[in-house]
Amino acid sequence: AQSVTQPDIHITVSEGASLELRCNYSYGATPYLFWYVQSPGQGLQLLLKYFSGDTLVQGIKGFEAEFKRSQSSFNLRKPSVHWSDAAEYFCAVASTGANNLFFGTGTRLTVIP
Amino acid sequence: KAGVTQTPRYLIKTRGQQVTLSCSPISGHRSVSWYQQTPGQGLQFLFEYFSETQRNKGNFPGRFSGRQFSNSRSEMNVSTLELGDSALYLCASSLAGVRGGHYGYTFGSGTRLTVV
Fold this sequence. Notes:
The complex is a heterodimer.
Chain A: E1 3-5, E2 10-14, E3 19-21, E4 24-26, E5 33-38, E6 45-50, E7 56-58, E8 64-68, E9 73-78, E10 87-94, E11 101-103, E12 107-112
Parallel strand pairs in A: 2-12
Antiparallel strand pairs in A: 1-4, 3-9, 5-6, 5-10, 7-8, 8-9, 10-11, 10-12
Chain B: E1 5-7, E2 10-13, E3 19-24, E4 31-38, E5 42-50, E6 53-57, E7 64-68, E8 74-78, E9 87-94, E10 106-107, E11 111-115
């Protein structure tokens, strides 16, 4: 069965510092993986996605993620965080043979000036 | 290109009532799926419709139902509302039929339902 684990519930970083949000997945075949961001009271915005090919994926807002099959991980990174990046971040995997997503529990990012 | 539109944005209902939420997908998208988001349970899949047919359903009671129209717009209905149904309900549309395809899923801003 598919599942996603985001081990960090809350992360605080200083503005300008680098960021890495962890995501581990459980999936039997090649996964379709996604990172979404959610601002308070809003819907989910797609940051980036991985289907196949290059394991380093570039997304919007300067984010990137690296797919590591050996570690079942798809960690999100950003070299320099901006105050506007404060939000909740969700990692997700698409299900097999169906058209829905399994989400992790999310990581709330706080950015301090 | 217009995004996914959900109406209304906010709703307050009383226990025992029923509610209908609406979702208009991106033009050309035939798949619409619904998710419930709560602080305790996170994001949970409710059901997915493709070409007016429910293809997949999550683990929710029969009080939660939905439908899709020929123009791909979708509605979800919750009958006999309970306090625990208070949540943000999100709709997502996708272009391809399975696994979101290479275009992924686009979410609306959600409907915030409060049951009192």
